[in-house]
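Customer ticket, subject: "Can you confirm the structure for Polar amino acid transport system substrate-binding protein?"

Message body: Hello, I'm evaluating your service for our small team and ran a test protein. I'd like someone to confirm that this is what the system normally returns, since I don't have a reference to compare against.
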Amino acid sequence: MKMISQHLKKLGMGSLLLASAWLFPAAAHADRLAEIQARGTLVCATLANNEPLGYPDPQTRQVVGFDVDMCAAVARKLGVQMQQKSVTVEARLPALIHGEADLVSAALGYTRERAHQIDFTASHYQNPIKLIVQSDSGLNLVSDLADKRISANRSSTPEQAARRVLPKATVLGFVDTPQAFLALAQGKVDALAISMPSGVRFVNESTGRFRFVEGALAWEPTALGVKKGERRLLAAINQGLMEMEKEGEIDALWSRWFGPKTKFNIPRDKKLTPIASLR
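Agent reply: Thanks for trying us out. I re-ran your input and got the following:
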């Protein structure tokens, strides 16, 4: 080491930094899994206004929901505590990219475009992306919306699906689901593009004012997201998800939030699926 130190002094400060990265490659790229285990918490980003995925409990005001419970279960598999962080749809990817969260569990649909920015775990559920219309609108099929105005969460997969499937429609992006739905309720748009689990409550609670049109814009594989290149963390979470699937824990959480005893009553037809098979 004495000879190495003398040699580095001759190289100068700029070369010193390069040489240090070469000599100590582990320091050049921090291991997120090791950081999580060292601090004892998994910072998990979820939505905070989308029932039953993530929304404030009326009694405690704590954010609860299926996505939050998934985060807590994954944290237990990693041997740490879960720290919930509320994000909007638009802020999901930046939260990972900028290191503000370790994991995103926020209705995160897989797309090839997003896979260039973050890494996805296996898909733990898949849902149809639907269109909600006013019941007396006379709009019955997806094709009936070909040249209409459609609202959606900005930067969401429903927005992308509406633009792709209905290229002649006018698609308006809103900051969150309640605002996108309000545009429909006020007659500013003809339909709302939304994942079915999120849309069911609007239909069920509308006393017949709103309904789904027949058919779906697309089927959306939903997964958890981690920062690009964190292979050990991704592998550990995928291992945890496989154990949860085998033990029936994902089904139990789904039943709690979406099952027949809830107002949603949506079956979990598609089980844990490797993301590679969906590309």
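A couple of notes from the result: The domain at 127-220 is CATH 3.40.190.10 (D-Maltodextrin-Binding Protein; domain 2). The chain has two domains: 32-124+223-278, 127-220. Feel free to reply with more questions.
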